[in-house]
Amino acid sequence: MNSKNILVVAGEQSGDHHLSKVVSEFKKINSSVQFWGIAGDYSLKNGVEICFHNRELAVVGIKEVVKHFPVIYRAFNGILKEVDQRKPSACLLVDYPDFNLRLAKKLYQRGVPVYYYISPQVWAWRSGRVSMMKRVLRKLYVILPFEEEFFKERGMEVKYVGHPLLDEEWVHQDYDREKLKEELFLGKLNPLFPLVSLLPGSRSSEWEHMLPILLGAAGKILEAIPNCQFSIPVASHLDFEVCQRKISEMTAEHKERFFLLKGRSIDSMRCSDLNLVASGTATLEAGVVGNPLLVTYRVSPVSASLFKLLTHYRGFIALVNLVAGAEVAKEFIQDLANPEAIATESIRILQGESHALQLKEGLKVVRDRLGDPGGSLRVARDLDRELHQG
User: Fold this and answer.
1) What is the rounded distance in angstroms from the CA atom of residue 278 to the CA atom of residue 233?
2) Are residues 178 and 147 in the same domain?
3) Quick one: average pLDDT of 315-329?
4) Run of H or E residues at 26
């Protein structure tokens, strides 16, 4: 076992966070295996050797990927050179499908057993990838309740492990909302006035597309509700000062109404009467928090056109709605993601107590449908068994 090593790839911050928890649990079971590959600061803290840091790889959309292609290309080929030298016993890929599925094919050709945690959403779009996944993946660890049946029906080796969100400490912690507001905003927030959290996403490319839209909506909300306040959590890996300057320029007329936070997105959502959230894992977090939310998202026109061409799913886009099986959060996607539409629905929620209570009630089902805590441990145990059997 001393010679065993596992290649890991998590190209984005959320995937890196989930990977780090799997690595932590794995080391409690088997401390002799070394982990290395493409990841970020979370995994680094848990002893993963970082060959390529993921901070340059976290981009969204075709146009954005083209812009960053040289960096992505260098990481892709660099990691394959490392594979040829280190001869890993296995590989664990986490989310980040466009990069990871291409890498999976190369690893399969080299005889490396490939395990995949947090499946590509092939049930929503680009379903043609399933046949390739079936061929090159040893096993798929899925986190959404309906995914296991989907992949089993298509002949894949799959294990439902539950959503890693339920492993987060905050999910199980009680809190006093008013005390949290006081601590979070240092007494500068007026507790009698409504608070809205703006969450444009964790990637710099998402901020570029989503921040102007959300701030535009905020301006229109202020026209109807002049005492409304806004919290904007800035992800820890983003440059806070750059984000601060950008927001200050765009909110100069009402700057006293906007509060920037370094991280603390969960606490911000807990304190808010409404959360405006970019589509992604954050919508599930907001759903578990349980306060009313609206989901919005926009990418470049080129990316949007290709998405429409390739998608076959005609239901919801937001994970919170997919898990709930109903529209518990109204979606404003692409052309609908405009300040006027978002503001109109936001004002309706903020001014309609009964409507807000109805939305809260609908969100209660989300946590129940995410499975049981312990997903990271289940992945670690199964991967360790696979190594012993292999």
Assistant:
1) 13
2) no
3) 88
4) helix 13-29
